[in-house]
Each structure stands twice: as C-alpha cells, then as structure tokens.
C-alpha cells in the first residue's frame, strides 16, 4: 500500500472553504456539500474526528476516523460531490450498510467519501452520482443508541489508514481558534519533563488536527525536544498496528490523551494531552516549555508554561 499523499487533491476547495467560511463555490469547481442537508450549512455533530471518549466505556477512548451527524431514522443522505459509486451495501470491512464514492480530479488523484449506518442505499456500484444527489437514508448503528450518519473522507486511498478530518473538506465556518494552556506536571526535574497541554475547541466544529509540546533553552532559544501528535499520522500508525488495546491504554510514544465527553449540544470540547519524559536542560532557570495547536481552518496558537 502506498503511503498517503501529503497534499490533498482538494487543496483549492479547502483554501476556498477556509477563506469564505463555507460559502460560495470554487471557480475551478463547486465546493462540497454536507451529507446531511445537502447544502453548505454546517450540521451538528455527536462525535468528531480523532481521539474520543467512549460513552459506553468510562475512561476508555478510541480513534474515530470520521464524524457522526445525528439525524432521525430515514433522513436523506446526499453525495458531497460528483463521483462514481465504488461500494453500496454490506461489506465485511464496514459496520452496517455503506456507500463509498470515488471523486477524482485526475487518474490517481482521488479521494473517497464514505457514508456508514445507512438503512439502504439508493445507488448501485459503478453508478455516476452528482453533487447533492440523494444516495440513501440514515439508520441505527449496531453499536449505537441513536440514529446517525458516520461520515468519512479517505484521501488518496480506500483503506482506513487514509482517513483524514472531514472538516478539512466540508464547508466549515472559520470560527474561533482553539484555546491553549500548558503546565508542568512533574516534580520539577530539569532533565526529564512532563507537560500537560489542554486544548479547548468550539463545540460547533471541533477541527483539531495537531498538538505539540516542546522544551527549549531560554538563553539560546534552541528547541531541545519537540513531540508532535498529528491526527493523520497517528491514524496511519494506529491502523498499521491493528491493535485496539494500544489506544485503550491512552498512551503511545510518550503521549497520553484524555478527551472529554462530547455531543451535539457541547458548546466547547476539551482534550488534554500529556507529553512525558521530554528532554530538559541542566538548569531549571534555563528551561522553557511551549505548546502549539493547529486546526482545520489554519489557526495556529501557541502557549508557554508559566
């Protein structure tokens, strides 16, 4: 399997969505529509992309490869863009009924929109569909207590490892940047530092895609060690490992993640990241700890430990 491409085939659409806060169309092609509603209007989500606390298992989280959009049973589901249906029905590698659509700018430059937990598809494999075309109805997932659409974007391939944050592609208001706080949680060691980074996101569209913590020298400004949690990279690593227990342990590569509960009524969404055993300095007076967060709209925020 080839590694995912670093640049999205939807770069023009993404740039436009960020610039116009989800309104209008790309001069070189129409922007995507939301799979529920079939317009550019933002829909409430009950789960976002990335680490999430499992409501049925307190203290345990998984890595959610898409977004969940709650909707009554039988709500129409729409294709987000023109494309060709590659799957329609039940498959061993998907939970419940799925429709997957291939969208290509050119041969080999494709992304795949994936719609899961449908009651039935209204399209067949091989069919050409248009942007905003009715392709199915929402259903009730076997593992869920309420009906919703699970929606994914897989950029560059059909496998799970290619899943990326759908809010990088769907029309999304630019909104507020994340709020960021960082503090030390170790016993004031200078050579081995533990930093906790708390990120607060707007509940309407939590689009976090990267968090980092670093130790630096105050005197020289030199970065001693930086550790990065990138959602796309982590998904590829987690998928390659193929072991759900890894994520249940809430720690990988010295990074522990503690997501808060999130639902469609959340006004804010908080995720805590703990970066353990970062290299420090010989002198406590020379040690500086910083953090950085980046979201789908290009907001980059930084903070330093007091």
Q: What is the number of helices?
A: 3
Strand content: 35-45%
CATH architecture of the largest domain: Sandwich
Overall form = elongated
CATH-wise, what's the superfamily of the largest domain? Answer: Immunoglobulins
Indicate the CATH topology of the largest domain: Immunoglobulin-like
Q: Could you give the distance between the termini?
A: 45 Å
Low-confidence stretches: 1-29
Helical content, roughly? under 10%
Pfam families: Peptidase_M23
InterPro entries: Cell_wall_metabolism_enzyme (IPR050570), Dup_hybrid_motif (IPR011055), M23ase_b-sheet_dom (IPR016047)
Keywords: Signal
GO molecular function, one term: metalloendopeptidase activity
Word description of this protein:
The protein folds into two domains: 50-168, Glucose Permease (Domain IIA) (Distorted Sandwich), CATH 2.70.70.10; 179-305, Immunoglobulin-like. Helices cover 8% and strands 43% of the residues. It has three helices and 20 strands. It has helices at residues 11-20, 231-241, 244-248, and strands spanning 50-53, 61-64, 67-70, 76-78, 83-90, 97-106, 109-121, 128-129, 134-138, 148-155, 163-164, 179-184, 192-202, 208-217, 223-230, 251-252, 255-259, 268-279, 287-295, 300-304. A hairpin with a 2-residue loop joins strand 16 (251-252) and strand 17 (255-259). The radius of gyration is 20 Å and the shape is elongated.
């Amino acid at each position: 399997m080839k590694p995912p491409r670093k640049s999205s085939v939807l770069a023009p659409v993404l740039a436009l969505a960020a610039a116009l806060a989800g309104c209008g169309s790309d001069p070189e092609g129409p922007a995507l529509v939301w799979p529920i509603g079939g317009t550019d209007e933002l829909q409430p989500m009950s789960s976002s992309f990335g680490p999430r606390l499992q409501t049925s298992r307190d203290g345990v989280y998984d890595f959610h490869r898409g977004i969940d959009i709650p909707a009554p049973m039988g709500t129409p589901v729409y294709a987000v863009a023109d494309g060709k249906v590659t799957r329609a029905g039940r498959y061993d590698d998907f939970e419940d009924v799925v429709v997957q659509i291939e969208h290509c700018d050119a041969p080999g430059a494709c992304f795949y929109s994936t719609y899961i937990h449908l009651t039935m598809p209204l399209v067949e494999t091989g069919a050409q569909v248009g942007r905003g075309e009715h392709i199915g109805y929402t259903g009730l997932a076997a593992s869920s207590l309420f009906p919703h659409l699970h929606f994914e974007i897989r950029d560059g391939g059909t496998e799970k490892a290619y899943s990326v944050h759908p809010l990088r592609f769907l029309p999304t208001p630019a909104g507020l940047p994340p709020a960021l706080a960082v503090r030390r949680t170790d016993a004031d060691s200078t050579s081995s530092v533990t930093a906790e980074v708390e990120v607060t996101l707007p509940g309407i569209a939590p689009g976090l895609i990267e968090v980092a913590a670093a130790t630096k020298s105050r005197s020289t400004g030199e970065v001693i060690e930086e550790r990065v949690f990138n959602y796309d990279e982590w998904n590829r690593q987690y998928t390659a490992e193929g072991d759900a227990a890894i994520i249940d342990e809430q720690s990988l590569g010295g990074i522990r993640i503690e997501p808060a509960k999130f639902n469609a009524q959340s006004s804010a969404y908080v995720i805590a990241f703990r970066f353990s055993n970062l290299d420090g300095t010989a002198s406590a007076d020379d040690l500086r700890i910083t953090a950085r967060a980046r979201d789908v709209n290009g907001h980059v925020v930084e903070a330093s430990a007091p």
